[in-house]
Amino acid sequence: MNGPEPFPHPIYVTQPLLPDLQDYCDMLRQVWESRLLTNNGPMAKRLESELAKYLCVPHLSLFSNGTIALQIACRLLRLKGEVITTPFTFAATTHALYLNDLKPVFCDVEEETLTMDPDRVEELITPDTCAILPVHVYGNPCKVERLQKIADKHGLKIIYDAAHAFGVEIDGIPVGSYGDISMFSLHATKIYHTIEGGALAFKSPGLKERSDQLRNFGIVKEDHINEPGTNGKLNEIQAAMGLLLLDKVDEEIIRRKEITYLYRDLLRNVPGIRTGEDQDGVKHNYPYFVIRVDHKEYGLSRDELQKGLREYNVFSRRYFYPLCSHFRCYRDLYSARAGNLPVAERSAEEVLVLPLYGGLKNEDVEKICSVIGHIRSGGNG
Ligand SMILES: Cc1ncc(COP(=O)(O)O)c(C=O)c1O
Question: How high is the pLDDT of residue 338?
């Protein structure tokens, strides 16, 4: 059966946003001249204040990566015992709890947004529960008001894993304003990045002060250490990247939105392929383009589609598969049992992330969509 030709070059699932090389060289020259490479240098300080403004949060600490930031967030709130979290996330979310001697308790997710289902949280609360760690997965905001009500009723803290939610707003309120702490990942695969990097956003200036100490070995003053800290500092080379990309991120989001809408339009009539929709009142940031593959209706499984796309030189990603509750280190937890997490279990078998980045051409999106239709009609062998 005749069909589209494979792409002559690989189409990867993402490409990092990059500044103009000459602009980056100019920033690096300043770093060379200052001879300050790290230890909260001038670029890191400037980025911290510009990023706080961009994200409209009162206080922000930068970190070497989001994982360390999340681990420090748990320390900052002095959490002990059990934390209710989602299995539908990247490994770093659950690991941050485990590495703080906290017990992850998995809560199922909502069908549409794949974020923590507030209807399932209260049944998981025990006398040992100290906090909730929901994830704004794919930049979809959680049901923040409902989660806050539950937290207030039971005296629980909330840390949001906002790794994917850079720039997202709910009814005009920046996503980083919710909960006690929000963590943003600034990894190169994210829409805005510092190569590797992370940030914590807080309302309380006291938390910011301790956070800055804990990312720097717990040092309060040269001769004064209060509590054990780690090395989580963002260096000047990373900060220079972040400063330049702040001017580019809005344009990147606009282009990703165009591509997302084009994908949705072209895939709307392919039976068995479900695309997401924007949520009412939400300013989205379009970090991933996620489809859900209904095996019966599409005629092929998600994994078969992924394999088929690969034959056309298109690289997609099963994100998030497997669930964190399936990892060897967590699967024996009571809350990890499949019967407890039906929506997450099914969704992890259906989701596929297709290529999305500002530099992706419309004609490439059109071809990817026609390949998806073609594979379905048996044109792949
Ligand atoms: C949901 C989620 N949480 C945490 C992280 C960890 O962030 P980082 O890669 O900056 O350490 C990621 C990274 O991709 C993520 O997707």
Answer: 77
Q: Which residues of the chain have pLDDT under 70?
A: 1, 379-381
Residue among 187, 196, 317 whose CB has most ligand 1 atoms within 8 A, to mutate: 187
Q: Are 4 and 312 in contact (CB under 8 A)?
A: yes
Q: Which atom of ligand 1 is nearest to the CA of 161?
A: 3
Encode pLDDT of 287-310 as tens digits: 999 999 999 999 999 999 999 999
Inter-residue contact 167 to 201 (CB < 8 Å): no
Q: How far apart are CA 267 and CA 292, in angstroms?
A: 11
How far the first Cα of the chain sits from its last, in Å, is 8
The residue contributing the CA closest to ligand 1 atom 8 is: 66
Report the share of the chain in percent with pLDDT over 90. 94
Dist. CA 66 → ligand 1 center (Å): 6
Q: What is the pLDDT of residues 22-65, one digit of tens each?
A: 999 999 999 999 999 999 999 999 999 999 999 999 999 999 99
HSE, side-chain direction, 13 A CA sphere, residue 153: 9
Q: Give the model confidence (pLDDT) of 234-251 as tens digits.
A: 999 999 999 999 999 999
Residues 13 and 316 sit within 8 Å (Cβ to Cβ): yes
Q: Which residue has the tokens 């937290």?
A: 151
Domains of the chain, each with CATH number or no CATH: 21-245 (3.40.640.10), 249-376 (3.90.1150.10)
Ligand 1, residues 65, 85, 90: which to mutate, most atoms within 8 A of Cβ? Answer: 90
> Number of C-alpha atoms within 13 angstroms, CB side, residue 348?
20
50 CA to centre of own chain:
21
Q: How close is the Cα of 92 to the center of ligand 1, in Å? A: 6
Query: CB of 266 closer than 6 A to ligand 1?
Result: no
For the CA of 187, the nearest atom of ligand 1: 10
